[in-house]
Write a structure and sequence with these properties.
mainly alpha; seven-stranded mixed β-sheet; globular
């Protein structure tokens, strides 16, 4: 019998999803691998034993059926021989993949979800509960839904029955997976649709949506959210039922006690973790319904009744708000439909058969990595490293957040006006500032900033993929290699306006190419006259790179139609004229010249520095890992271009990459108010060179698999790294618990005398004083023309703005970095209430008049007692 390729593909897809999920849970750094492995083995041994028992019972059933229909003279195999026959048939079909995979999936999914819910999800908090409670009352005419269920099921025995039905859910939840393991080949679609839906419900609803919509539920409201009389009354009513029937009569009360014990417990406890929205309990019950209708109408209606009981019980017992179940049920129906489409797609072969001659054919027009679902998943996973940190651990970002806080809170009701001035005017550096200005009043400074920053690498990945598809008509595997460059050194440093503008530049370039291909030149001219101004407003560099990309495309387009090569650059420039409008504000803003007030001034042709920037394109934490990744990408470009085909479309990006490299060589260190101007271009020049590479001549599948592995390894590494940085942020920000509102804090951040690879990313942590304590911090930038905030606090003297927060040992003191003893001795004590020394240099300094009020692992908070 031929191996069933569709079952193998379905199993491989499920294993990939499970591996990504489990790797992500481990990469957070909050779960011990040994504890997760122990939990996995506990779950697997249980479910595998149940699967084996169910298989034996199935074999007995088959044996007795054979005996019933057999002729008296026929020899019927024994039950054990029947079991062996079934195993042999499964081996011939898919090498036991569909038999072993469901219990492996169940154990891996349950253990990873358990760990995520108990140790990772706890950091999300429970700030959505008040809103969900209000929404419930709105839907139920001003009443808490639990009051209606308790009015309908007022007898204590009814509460007991609902409790039994609610916890009986664990039986079909487990056995549904076991049944899938035993289904025959004719049930391929049902098994695949069910198992994939099962995984997506737990991962999508129970993990991703639970993180985005954090809530505890009515039964835990008074424990973790705040006092709420209605839910306290619900608890008393349930306790009364428990007292009536005995201490262990209500399973829900026992389970709630276990969850309270597990909350915050370092030990990984089976069933631990608190989350309400959306309800996985209701989601899986809805999965029973849609799967039931796929088998028979009667089973579907029976499961519908049971799912309705589950929803009522979730409200009645205080586990969930009514809206938790409604959202989960609706989402599960959508998931079931989508996974059905995936199951259908997996039935079709992904690759054409090899030619009879044995030669590998060219890749089909839609290879598996080019599927929209795969590309969407890659874009989604590009944001994964930023999902869990409370504050995206980018070096300059806390400083930007301080500016956003002043921008949103400047007025008579705050004290910011005594220290800062904020003047809205048009500059080419406002991308995230504008977005936070509109989102901040709803989400707060921290929430709005995190949402926008998560979107930046996702938009960057989407831009890379869109350009590759528009250039080549395909998505070559090398485009996937470019995706980790979204987390380049400039982004990790916190140049968020720049990074956002570059992401939008690539997306805009894909649109430029598409309109050109459709010959909609008039529409393109009018649209990009507006888009160029908008992109310039986000950040001037994004607009400049869009001009480079568009000019490269027009060079190639006009080279095909122009007989006289000398006129090609002229006509290409004319085609790009709609992008020239931002020159007007540039002339108005920068006519005076200068580098925007940066203390570094103009530095040209520093070859040592430029060569180091190339090696630092992916600089994050581990030097060997980051440099090896850059070398791998550079070798991929060199190897691909050495074996290139003549593809005029790829030539567009080839020219653009060369122009970016030329700009990188010619640009100074600081330009138009932005430091590290040349360094920022290096990762995007490399990305453009990778995108220029088309589909290889030979079978592209090995390259696609290698690219996905590279993307996965870099993503997991970045998740891990950012998790460690997040821990350091949390530890040091505990100092703010000892800082009163409106305090004036002098931040002194110790810097190494020698260059080290990993950045501590705490350079602008003092600005969190502005965000969380509405006070003054001395690390805001004062680069003319680069931001809208200015420091007006004259009493601070030389300690009013960046880079006054940087201190070093005396042996390496320089103009922009003062020695720590000198800083302590000379800062105006009457201008500050506290000194926050982060990574204080190990050097003697006169600390008289400074009283320590808090000590962390790497920082000390002093109160200034001598003015």
């Amino acid at each position: 019998m031929k191996v069933s390729a569709r079952d193998v593909r379905a199993t491989a897809l499920g294993l990939f999803l499970l591996t990504v999920y489990a790797s992500f849970v481990l990469a957070t750094g909050k779960v011990e691998p040994g504890a997760l492995a122990e939990l996995f083995w506990t779950d697997f041994s249980s479910v595998f034993a149940l699967t084996a028992l169910a298989g034996l019972l199935l074999s007995l059933g088959v044996h007795f059926r054979r005996m019933r229909i057999a002729h008296p003279d026929d020899r019927v195999p024994s039950p054990l021989a029947t079991f062996e026959d079934l195993l042999r048939a499964r081996w011939q079909r898919d090498r036991l993949a569909t038999l072993i995979w469901p219990p492996v999936m169940f154990a891996g999914l349950m253990s990873s979800f358990n760990a995520f819910k108990q140790h990772v999800l706890i950091d999300a908090g429970f700030h959505l509960d008040p809103d969900l409670a209000r929404l419930d009352r709105l839907l139920f005419f001003g009443q808490d839904p639990w009051r209606l269920t308790h009015a309908l099921f007022s007898e204590p025995w009814m509460t007991l029955l609902l409790d039994r039905a609610y916890h009986l859910w664990f039986v079909p939840m487990s056995f549904g997976v076991i049944i899938c393991a035993l289904l025959g080949e004719q049930s391929y679609r049902l098994r695949t649709q069910y198992l994939l839906s099962y995984m997506v419900v737990w991962i999508g609803l129970g993990s991703i949506m639970a993180w985005l919509l954090p809530s505890a539920g009515p039964c835990f409201y008074n424990d973790y959210v705040g006092p709420q009389a209605s839910f306290a009354e619900l608890g008393r009513q349930l306790q009364a039922v428990g007292a009536l029937y005995g201490p262990d009569s209500l399973n829900s009360l026992d389970a709630q006690r276990l969850l309270r014990y597990a909350y915050g417990n370092e030990e990984l406890i089976i069933g631990g973790g608190i989350s309400a929205m959306p309800s996985v309990h209701n989601g899986v019950a809805a999965l029973f319904v849609v799967a039931g209708f796929s088998i028979s109408r009667k089973l579907g209606w029976a499961m519908s009744v049971y799912a309705f009981i589950i929803w009522l019980a979730s409200i009645h017992l205080g586990w969930h708000y009514a809206v938790d179940g409604i959202v989960a049920i609706a989402a599960t129906v959508v998931i079931w439909w989508a996974m059905g489409k995936v199951a259908d797609r997996l039935e079709r072969p992904l690759f054409k058969a090899f030619r009879a001659s044995g030669e590998r054919p060219a890749a089909p027009m839609s290879a598996w990595w080019e599927h929209r679902g795969v590309l969407a998943l890659l874009v989604l996973l590009s944001g994964a490293p930023l999902w869990f940190p409370d504050i995206p651990p980018l070096t300059d970002l806390p400083g930007h957040m301080g500016r956003y806080a002043v921008q949103l809170g400047l007025g008579p009701s705050t004290g910011f006006a005594q220290w800062y001035a904020f003047d809205w005017h048009w500059i080419g550096n406002l991308g995230v500032d504008i977005l936070v200005h509109f989102l901040g009043p709803v989400l707060g400074v921290e929430g709005a900033t995190k949402l926008v920053v998560i979107a930046i690498p996702m938009l960057t990945a989407a831009g890379f993929l869109a350009v590759a598809r528009e250039i080549h008509g395909r998505v070559p595997p090398t485009a996937i290699l470019a995706l980790p460059l979204a987390y380049n050194f400039a982004f990790n440093w916190g140049f968020v306006n720049y990074a956002l503008s570059m992401a939008l530049a690539f997306l805009a370039f894909a649109l430029w190419l598409r309109l050109g291909r459709l010959e909609r030149f008039r529409m393109r001219a009018g649209l990009f006259a507006v888009l160029s101004l908008l992109l310039w407003t986000v950040h001037i560099f994004g607009w400049a790179i869009l001009c480079v990309l568009a000019f490269s495309a027009e060079l190639v387009r006009h080279a095909r139609s122009q007989a006289r090569w000398g006129l090609v650059p002229f006509h290409a420039g004319l085609a790009c004229l709609p992008l020239a409008l931002p020159f007007l504000p540039m002339v108005l803003l920068f006519a005076h010249g200068g580098s925007g007030g940066q203390p570094f001034g103009h530095t040209w042709f520093n070859w040592d520095q430029k060569s180091r920037w190339v090696g630092s394109i992916l600089r994050d934490r581990w030097e060997w890992f980051d440099k090896a990744s850059v070398i791998a990408l550079q070798l991929a470009v060199l190897f691909a271009w050495a074996r290139r085909r003549k593809t005029p479309q790829g030539l567009i990006l080839g020219i653009a990459a060369v122009l970016m490299l030329l700009l990188y060589v010619l640009m100074p260190f600081a330009l138009l108010g932005s430091a590290y101007a040349d360094m920022r271009l290096a990762p995007f020049a490399l990305a453009t060179a990778l995108l220029a590479v088309g589909m290889p001549r030979r079978d592209p599948r090995p390259l696609a698999i290698a690219a996905l592995l590279f993307f996965g390894v870099r993503t997991v590494g970045t998740v891990w790294s950012f998790g460690l940085f997040d821990e350091s942020f949390r530890r040091e920000l505990a100092a703010l618990d000892h800082v009163p509102e409106g305090a004036r804090v002098l931040g002194l951040v110790g810097k190494h005398c020698e260059t080290v690879w990993p950045s501590r990313r705490l350079d602008h942590l003092p600005s969190m004083v502005i965000v969380r304590r509405h006070g003054f911090a001395n690390d805001q930038w004062q680069a003319a023309g680069a931001q809208l905030l200015s420091v007006t606090y004259k009493s601070a003297g030389a300690f009013g703005a960046d880079p006054s927060q940087f201190v070093v040992e005396s042996r390496c003191e320089r103009i922009e970095r003062m020695a720590f003893p000198r800083a302590i001795a000379t800062f105006p004590r009457g201008a500050f209430d506290y000194v926050w020394a982060i990574y204080q240099p190990k050097e003697k300094a006169d600390l008289s008049g400074l009283t320590p009020v808090w000590r962390g692992e790497y920082s000390v908070l002093y109160r200034v007692t001598t003015k």
